[in-house]
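Lay summary. Proteins are chains of building blocks that fold into shapes, and those shapes determine what they do. In this project we predict the shape from the chain. Here is one chain we studied, written as its sequence of building blocks.
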Amino acid sequence: MSQKITKPFPSRQLAVVCVCRFAMVRDFKIAPEQSIGYYVGLITSCFALTQVLTGLVGTIISILLFGLSKSFAWALFSRSLCGLLNGNISVLKSMVSELTNDLLPHQRAQAFSLLPLMYGLGSIIGPMLGGFLSHPVSNYPNIFGHLGAITDFLVEYPYFLPCFISAFICLMGLIFGMIFLEETHKAVKYERVHQDEEVLPISDRQADLENYSTFTTNSTTGAVKIQHSPTPTLHDRNAPPTLKDALTPTVVAICITYGFFALQAVYMDASSRDNGGLGFSPNEIGSALAFSGVITLCSQIFILPVLTKKYGLLRLFQIVLFILVFVYLVQGVIPTLYYVPDLNGDVDTKFWVWVGLLIVLTFKTVCHTISFTGCTILVNNACPRDESLGAVNGFSSCCASGMRAIGPAMCGVIWSASLSSTWIPYSIRVNIAFVVLAGIGLFTYYLSTKLNADDYETAHSREEVVSTQDPSSSTSS
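And here is the predicted shape, written in a compact code that computers can read:
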């Protein structure tokens, strides 16, 4: 087995990958408010359900179409289109894995943390865009109230402006990636260079080159063909690994765990207090999610590398999964903080609600950040060969997307059904969804305890098997 050589941190290419990564239901009036969760779940689910590898262009188009939504059916269609035309994350994960195969474990963790780092940055900007730029004419009449046709358009489509800004950011990521992103797969990159150097056109030096026995020339095209030894190749490069070869028991085990973790996503909604929500406005929800984005950034930069070094990747993954079980249970208690007197002795204020929400969001975001990043690294560490990275990351994304498709819809159904079950005491039915979520979290933790640390702590040695040939046999006299 070849000795692992630590190479410099690939900052430039990872920066380009990060740029590529950085890439309204109640107003449809289709259902009573207690059923909103069901429809939110469907809209969220259809994105993950139809996700395949097709790129940023589809994202731009679908975001703009979503901004033109005036009905539930249109919103469902545009989000389904977004899922159908976007799946860049599997490609980006494979690229980061190929860039960091030779790095130390904590450096590899730092590199993989950049992807959710960009997600965290988007979590800050995205909610702010949605919360502060939706309904621009009514919210900012001095700016958007006197623009003629533009004003009429923004009144007709109040969510188009934040979607337009999001699409523009995606366009910048697309352009940046097209210009600066390089091939990371070693075999493909070498093959391209080899093909470029296969035939060298000449003009002035043809007569001189004819004197060398190691070259043959074509008098018609004026080109020189270099006779050389066969290109070093990866083992079985002409026979790419099948999906069966890539999906080893080690890979399948971590992908299933990843899928159940993805199932745990619960989405905040602007539900009224009567329906078990916090009664927050869209702007307040945007601010809370932006705070969560800041915590994500801090977790990636300051917490994840330190804890990975101290506990090891798999052990840390198991710890945060266990903590999340209790976080989910506490989440359902936050609305009761309305009844706790604030510093002035007043009740029914949002002071302690905000305090409780920010504390829960902090723990939840830190744990989710570590879990998602850790699970991504564990999946790539389990990959048996470089050639299998695409298949393995694609399969893991399918597992996660399938569970994300089930999760929001299931949570929405449970939430709506529990609120409608008036025979159940109110204090119990508003917490049923969180109890179910905690149960899923506990099962996910149980799955993680069955993983063998030796299979996941470091990237598998993907030793290149090089075929060689005596150079003298390749020359022509």
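What the prediction tells us: The domain at 25-186+248-453 is CATH 1.20.1250.20 (Growth Hormone; Chain: A;).
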